[in-house]
Design a protein that fits this description.
Layout (H helix, E strand, L loop, with lengths): L1 H6 L3 E2 H10 L14 E3 L7 H14 L4 E5 L7 H6 L7 E4 L7 H11 L2 E8 L1 H4 L2 H10 L2 E6 H4 L6
Parallel strand pairs: 1-2, 2-6, 3-4, 3-5, 5-6
């Protein structure tokens, strides 16, 4: 897994999911905590979305929350349910009180009450040592949805 980090600048949802399959016979269904994880997808390319949903389903098995920061990060409720995610464990932070998404992500990670924290934005803005450290210490997945392609996605 460390070799994966050293050879790539950013980690994608498919990289992390595939690493869970290739890791030695680990009893825990939880994916490795590599952060931040970029999720880029569009209406025509939804492979990363599928991997992302699989990782969320694994994270959902923990007795912790899945937090979406901002309405723009939230996925369709039916999509989450169809992916096997218990929506009773999903939180949406709507009122950001003029705080940056970056700061809110750090706070959510540091609290340790979430198995996954999701935000929209550019991966470069969230690929910081403080986010990485907070996610590693809390054993939380940190996902960055690419806002440029998310807006193009429509659910049927």
């Amino acid at each position: 897994m460390k070799a994966l980090i050293q050879t790539q600048e950013f980690i994608t949802a498919s990289d992390v999911y595939k690493a869970t399959l290739s890791s030695h016979a680990d009893i825990s269904p939880s994916p490795p905590r590599i952060v931040p994880i970029e999720v880029s997808y569009s209406e025509h390319q939804q492979a990363q979305l599928a991997y992302f949903l699989r990782l969320l389903k694994q994270a959902n098995q923990e007795n912790r929350w899945i937090m979406f920061i901002g309405q723009d990060a939230l996925l369709d409720k039916r999509l989450l349910i169809n992916a096997g995610i218990d929506i009773n464990k999903v939180l949406l932070l709507k009122n950001m009180k003029n705080q940056s998404k970056n700061l809110l992500m750090v706070k959510a990670l540091e609290m340790g009450n979430c198995s996954a924290v999701i935000v929209t934005g550019e991966i470069e803005a969230f690929n910081t040592p403080i986010i990485t450290m907070a996610a590693e210490q809390s054993k939380t997945l940190a996902f960055i949805l690419n806002q440029n392609v998310k807006a193009q996605l429509t659910f049927h």
